[in-house]
Amino acid sequence: MGALKIGWDFFQNEVLGMGWLSRLISTILNACGLDTTSRVGGSIQFFIYDTIKIMVLLGVLILIISYIQSYFPPERTKKILGRFHGIWANIIAALLGTVTPFCSCSSIPLFIGFTSAGLPLGVTFSFLISSPMVDLGSLVLLMSIFGWKVAVLYVVLGLVIAVVGGTLIEKLHLENQVEEYIRNGHAIDVPQEELHFKDRMKYAWEQVVSTAKKVAPYVLIGVGIGAIIHNWIPEDLIVKVLGDNNPFGVVLATIAGVPMYADIFGTIPIAEALLAKGALLGVVLSFMMGVTTLSLPSMIMLRKAVKPKLLGIFIAICTVGIIVVGYFFNAIQYLIV
Question: Residue 106, exposed/middle/buried by CB under 10 A (0-12, 13-18, 19+)?
């Protein structure tokens, strides 16, 4: 058992967390005459290390997930979802959301396609909530920063929000709140040719390049913000605003995430820096969920597909779910960190 723990700690710290890379960069910067214990040196070390780590993990994860995703094109996904009914349909939709695009702006076109194809509205919303919030990439990235307990719980609770949210929307019978051009649309069944291994790898690599180009600016911005928080913002200020002393920290963090647009890769370095400075775990994770699920650009895009009433209900369900999850993580932080 001890050997297993040592092996797991090595995998988490040196493979996922790339501790060796952090030490290597510190050694190189120190050899160049830059003190990495100073604010400037620490910021540069944080920026270089986190950028390389996230982009490497990003490439590997997208390659693996896109290869899996090649087995689930929209038409096949629609057929899979069509076989299930009731809450099982919501569960399958939420699970399928974990192997689809990394941000809500990419998920919304798929949501529109599924809705046009006649799938139940609640099922399509379970997919829409799950897709940006709890993809497989978030599991691995969170594991590299916060450990497996936090990562698994984050994904499980994200799936619960997706299933509960979709089920509530289904029970409210809000089909008339979908824009008419979508309700009257008809998806055309296009035969899916069977791809070979080489074709799937080519598709996966194309997704790596395409996604990396899209998210790289947000990663750089996120790492830059993280470096500032990590080395320049006083710890007392973070603790005062986002620590134990502020019972509304989760609410503030959720609201703060809405105006931003990023995915899990851009929010990880900010979350990492906030946690290191004394922010509560639930506050940090609520911020991440708020950014990935409720970003303003995504809501503007979704408004083109649904009417204000349904959009408001969607935002309310996600917001309440995120806040509840945040307070839950705050309550059990001492057990899992």
Answer: middle
Listed in sequence order, the residues at least 6 apart from 269 whose beta carbon sits closer than 8 Å to its beta carbon are 46, 50, 54, 219, 222, 223, 225, 226, 227
Q: Where are the alpha helices (DSSP H) in 97-147?
A: 104-116, 121-133, 136-146
Q: How far apart are CA 272 and CA 308, in angstroms?
A: 35
Question: Sorting pLDDT into bands at 50, 70 and 90, what band is 190?
Answer: very low
The proportion of the chain whose per-residue pLDDT surpasses 90, expressed as a percent, equals: 17
| Mean pLDDT of the chain, nearest integer | 82
Whole-prediction pTM value? 0.77
CA atoms within 13 A on the CB side of 225: 15
C-alpha–C-alpha distance, residues 276 and 274, integer Å: 5
CA distance 104 to 172: 23
Residues 155 and 139: beta-carbon distance below 8 Å: yes
Closest CA to 239 of 275, 290, 193: 275
How far is the C-alpha of 58 from the C-alpha of 215, rounded, in Å?
9
Residue ranges covered by each domain of the chain: 52-185+195-336
DSSP state of 175: G
Per residue in 9-44, pLDDT (tens digit) is 788 778 878 889 989 999 999 999 888 889 889 889
User: What does the pLDDT look like over 103-118, one tens digit per residue?
Assistant: 555 677 777 777 777 7
Let me know if 223 is exposed, middle or buried by CB neighbors in 10 A (0-12, 13-18, 19+).
buried
> Which candidate, 296, 293, 301, 278, places its Cα nearest to that of 323?
293
Q: CB of 76 within 8 A of CB of 192?
A: yes
Q: d(Cα 123, Cα 223) in Å, to the nearest integer?
A: 35
* Per-residue pLDDT, 245: 74
Nearest to 268 by CA among 143, 95, 106, 121: 143
Residue 314: HSE in the Cβ half-sphere, 13 Å Cα cutoff: 27
Q: Residue 84: which residues within 8 A CB-CB, separation 6 or more?
A: 91, 92
